[in-house]
Amino acid sequence: MKISTVVFDLDGTLMDTLQDLAESTNYALREYGFPQHSLEAVRSFVGNGVRKLIERALPQGEENPLFEEVFRTFKEHYVAHCRDHSGLYAGIADMLQTLSDTGYQLAVVSNKLQKGVTELQHSYFSSWIKVAVGERPEVRRKPAPDMVLQAIRELEADLRETVYVGDSDVDIETARQCGIPCISVLWGFRDREFLETCGAAHFAATPQDIIQLIRRGLE
């Protein structure tokens, strides 16, 4: 397979954002007197966007009469604190630099709010990745293909030469809906056994593995 473009998931793939997500979730819950959650519990809640995160964390989910207030508080807190503990995983910067230097077009797509995605892009990977698509009204969240297709349009790239890189079942399904292959990383929020049950076919144990798989055309 000829590969010219690589689209990355953000949380659990490029960046370890779990602690900041957990702290903002628990801040919002605490403000309204609801039970808080452990880091591992929040890990199981992420992957389908922050609205779904709060739905899973809040008793009664969206049926809770205070849902919108809790969700608004979470968003305000997270935008202000999304960089407190988050950072690129080890080896990610070198991997992005290598791919960029080699001429690959790179993008990020995330179910995180667009404002948060833009903030993290500017702070951590704008040197290599110019297109970063987050949750916005006119673009459906993953696993719908919209975010990837939007990134491809902004890059003026070829979807047929694109590979997707993510850490979750949502990412595998997103790639499937786009008709492109997916590389599943093993340092993120889901383990290999779970990813295999979701149909994962290509695995990266380290960021350097991503480079090797892409160079070989996912053979």
From TrEMBL:
Pfam families: HAD_2. GO terms for biological process: DNA repair. NCBIfam families: HAD-SF-IA-v1 (TIGR01549), HAD-SF-IA-v3 (TIGR01509), HAD-SF-IIIA (TIGR01662). It catalyses: 2-phosphoglycolate + H2O = glycolate + phosphate. GO terms for molecular function: phosphoglycolate phosphatase activity. Belongs to the HAD-like hydrolase superfamily. CbbY/CbbZ/Gph/YieH family. This is phosphoglycolate phosphatase. It comes from the Bacteria. The lineage of its organism: Bacteria, Pseudomonadati, Bacteroidota, Bacteroidia, Bacteroidales. Its EC number is 3.1.3.18. The keyword NAD does not apply. InterPro entries: HAD-like_hydrolase_sf, HAD-like_sf, HAD-SF_hydro_IA, HAD-SF_hydro_IIIA, HAD_2, HAD_sf, PGP-like_dom2.
